[in-house]
């Protein structure tokens, strides 16, 4: 690894799993960023740097060490798969949540004739919804 690649590696290493390469600091190191994109290898011949396209701006690339898992602010977490929004997954979660809340309401109305008591028993915390789903 040449001196420029070592500088790029150090900057990327310090940035962790969230920081963009290409904003602000690339003026100093333009050509090594190209090397990073191609996959700088460590002395053992393994790739040491990878690029990730963030879901909120697919035109940019974030560089990070190869073995670091990207932050969910970059990948979108469970809501995204390969930079595509998982609308079907969200629809399923919405329908399941609605089903749970409707069952909760039905049960509360049957069990409690008093509207205030019934309303209190309709409420639930997110843990109950999560367990249902």
Keywords:
single chain; 133 residues; mainly alpha; two-stranded antiparallel sheet; 6 helices; 4 strands; 50% helix
Largest sheet: 2 strands, antiparallel
What topology, given as strand order, has the largest sheet? 1-2
Number of helices: 6
H and E order? HHEEHEEHHH
Query: Would you report the number of β strands?
Result: 4
Shape: rod-shaped
Structural class comes to: mainly alpha
Helix content: 40-55%
Spans where pLDDT lies below 50 across 5 or more residues: 23-30
Provide a descriptive summary of the structure in words.
The chain is 50% helix and 9% strand. The chain contains 6 helices and 4 strands. Strand 3 and strand 4 (84-85) form a beta hairpin. Helix 1 (3-15) crosses helix 2 (30-38) and helix 4 (87-111) packs antiparallel against helix 5.
Question: What is this structure's SSE topology?
Answer:
Layout: H1 3-15, H2 30-38, E1 49-52, E2 62-65, H3 72-75, E3 80-81, E4 84-85, H4 87-111, H5 115-122, H6 126-132
Antiparallel strand pairs: 1-2, 3-4
Q: What's this entry about, in short?
A:
This protein is mainly alpha-helical and 133 residues long. It has 6 helices and 4 strands.
